[in-house]
Amino acid sequence: MKRYLWIFAVLPFLWSCIAEDRSACPQPRGVSVRMSVCPDPMTAVTHAADEEAIRDLNLYLLDADRNVVLHRYQSSPTLRFECLPGDYLLRIAANMGRDTGDSPAWENLAVTHADDYDTLPMAYEGEVSIPSSDETVTLPTVEVQRVVAKVTYNISVAPDAGDIRLHSVQPVNLPARAQVFDPGLRAAEYTAGEIVGSSSQTLTGTFYMLPNLQGEVPSIADQRDKGPANAPADATFLRIRALRGSKVLDYCVYPGGNNTSNFDIRANTHYTLDITIRGDAEVDTRIRAYTVEVQCTPEAALSNGFLLERQPMRLTLRLGGHYEEAGVEAFVELKTGDVRYFGFEGQWGAVARTMEIRGPENDYDIRYWPPSFTREECRFMFRVHILDRYGEVASFGFPYCYAHLLRVYTKWFDGSNGKGTVASPDALRVVEDMTLSSWYSLIYCPDEGCTLVATPDADRLFEGWCRNADHTGVLSYEEQYRFSPDDDPAVIYAYFR
After folding, report:
1. Given CA atoms 143, 144, 149, 153 in this order, what sign does their dihedral have?
2. Is 191 exposed, middle or buried (0-12, 13-18, 19+ CB in 10 A)?
3. Each residue's pLDDT tens digit, 332-354
4. Which residues contact 181 (CB under 8 A, 6 or more apart)?
5. Which value, to the nearest 10 degrees, does the dihedral of the CA atoms of residues 94, 100, 106, 112 take?
6. Class of 149-285 in CATH
7. Percent of the chain at pLDDT exceeding 70
8. How far is it, in rounded angstroms, from Cα 371 to Cα 394?
9. Whole-number mean pLDDT of the chain?
10. Domain definitions of the chain by residue range
11. Which residue range or ranges hold the DUF4906 domain (predicted)?
12. Which of 142-151, 265-274, 397-406 is modeled with the greatest confidence?
C-alpha cells in the first residue's frame, strides 16, 4: 500500500551555499526542483475507495531547526518549486482535500475517521539531501504510505452449527482521529463503525480505519482467550452479532499482528480475517450471549386464535445471560388497530410504550378494547422490539382478532345424518370439527354477521336452519341465511335429508 514520488531537482552550481548557511552568500540563487508522483499498482481493490488515486498534495521542506522553508499545495501529481541545496526533512500529506497551510501545527494536521473514503489519506516523512549541481538532480524514489489500515473480513457459520444465523457485524473501538505524521500516537477518542446487517450464514466486507497500536498481552497463548476479558480496553475488534433460537450471541474478534497476543493495527497494512463460527460455548472468552423470550397470554383461552371477549393480556419478557452488560431495552408498538383502544400498563392512546426492565422476568398488562367487533375494528397487532447498545436485536409480532363464535351442526346423534355441507364466504374463518357423534363447523363472524350457505349432497334436500336439535325453532328454509350475532343463537342446526 504505497505511492512512489519521483523527485527531480535542477540545481545550478551554487558554490558552497547550503540551506544551513545562507549568510555566506549574499545573493543565493534558487534551485528549480521538479517532483512527480507515481502510484505503485495494487493487485486487488475490494472497497469503494480509490486506493490508487492521489488527488492533491501538500509538500513541506523543513530545515535543521524544523522550520518550514517551503510549502506547496496542488492537485497535479507533478510539483515544481525552487529551493536552496541542502539537507531537509521532507513531509508530504496527500489526499487531505485542502491546503493545510504554510506553517501548520503538526499535532493539528490530522485525519478523522470516516465510514467511507473517496480517496485514502497518505503521508511520507523522511530526510532528503539536495546537492549542488549544474545539472538536473534526480532524487531517490519516495514511497507515500496510506495513513489508514485496511481490514477485510470473511465470516461463515460451520455446517455443524447450521441453526446459527448471522445478524450483523460492526467494527468497534476505531480511533476517531490520528495525526498524519505521528499515526502511532494513542487516540484520545474512539468511535464505532457502520453496522452491516445480514440474515444468512456468510458475511464478507471491508473497512478502513486509522491505526490503533494497543501493544502485546503476553499472557494470551490461545486465540480463544483473545477476548474482551483479556484485551486492552481500547483495542479494536469486530462485534459479530448472531442469533440462535432465543439466544443473542456476540462474537468479539480482535485483529492484530497475530491471532493471540498482539493488538496492533498499523497504518498502510491490510488485515484479512477469515472467521468461522462453530458454536456458542461461552468457555470461549470471545463470546458473549444473552437470551430473550417474549410471550403474550390472554386472560381467557383463545378459540382457534380468536378472542371472543374483551380481556386483559399478560405480556412477559424473560431475559438471561449477559443482558445487563449488553444494555438491553424493549418497547411495544401498535402496528394494526386504533390507537385509542390500545392500553399498556394502564396508559392509553400511544402507539409505542417503553417496557421497563426490572429483572430477568418482567410482566406487563396490555389491552386492546374496541367498542365493537366490526370488520374495521376487530383486528389488531402489536410488536415487541428488543434493542441493545448495538441496535435492534429482534422483534416479536402478536396478531389478534375479536369475533363472535357460531357453531353449526350438520350431523348429530338422533338427528340429521350429515348429507350436506355448510360454508360462509364472508366469515373471518371457518373451522371444521367433529366428535364421535357429531359434525359441525365453527364459524367466526364480525359484528356485521356472516352469510351461511347450505349445500346438500346429490339426491339430498336441505330442510332448514333451526335453533334446536329436534327440528324446531326454524330460522329459515332457504339454503342461504344471513346470521346476526345480536339476534340469532350461538348454535344452529342445519337439517339435511
Report:
1. negative
2. middle
3. 999 999 999 999 999 999 999 99
4. 91, 93, 106, 109, 123, 125
5. -70
6. mainly beta
7. 89
8. 32
9. 87
10. 2-146, 149-285, 292-401, 404-496
11. 204-275
12. 397-406
Q: Is 305 left (phi over 0), alpha (psi -120 to 50) or beta?
A: left
Handedness of CA 215, 218, 222, 227 (dihedral sign): negative
Q: What is the 3-state secondary structure (H, E, C) of the chain?
A: CEEEEEEEEECCCCCCCCHHHHHHCCCCCCEEEEEEEEECCCCCCCCCCECCCCCCEEEEEECCCCCEEEEEEECCCEEEEEECCEEEEEEEEECCCCCCCCCCCHHHCEEECCCCCCECCEEEEEEEEECCCCCEEEEEEEEEEECCEEEEEEEEECHHHCCCEEEEEEEECEECEEECCECCCCCCCEECCCCEECCCCEEEEEEEECCEEEEECCCCCCHHHCCCCCCCCCCCEEEEEEEECCEEEEEEECCCCCCCCEEEECCCCEEEEEEEECCCCCCCCCEEEEEEEEEEEECCCCECCEECCCCCEEEEEEEEECHHHHCCEEEEEEEECCHHHEEECCEECCCEEECCCCCCEEEEEEEECCCCCCCCCCEEEEEEEEEECCEEEEEEEEEEEECEEEEEEEECCCCCECCEEEECCCCCEEEEEECCCCEEEEEEECCCCEEEEEEECCCCCEEEEECCCCCCCEEECCCEEEECCCCCCCEEEEEEC
What is the grid cell recorded at 243?
442469533
C-alpha cell at 18: 547550503
CB of 329 closer than 8 Å to CB of 387: yes
Write down the pLDDT at residue 232.
96
Under 8 Å CB-to-CB from 403, ≥6 apart: which residues?
306, 307, 308, 373, 378, 428, 429, 444, 445, 446
pTM, full prediction: 0.73
Do 292-401 and 149-285 fall under one CATH topology?
A: yes
Residue 15 to residues 88, 173, 242, Cα–Cα distance (Å): 19, 55, 72
CA–CA gap between residue 220 and residue 228 (Å, rounded): 12
Look at the domain 292-401 and name its fold.
Answer: Immunoglobulin-like (2.60.40)
> Which residue do the cell numbers 337439517 mark?
495
Nearest Cα to Cα of residue 132 among 87, 192, 177, 182: 87
Question: How far from the centroid of its chain's Cα atoms is residue 270's Cα?
Answer: 24
Among 237, 330, 314, 320, CA closest to 275 = 237
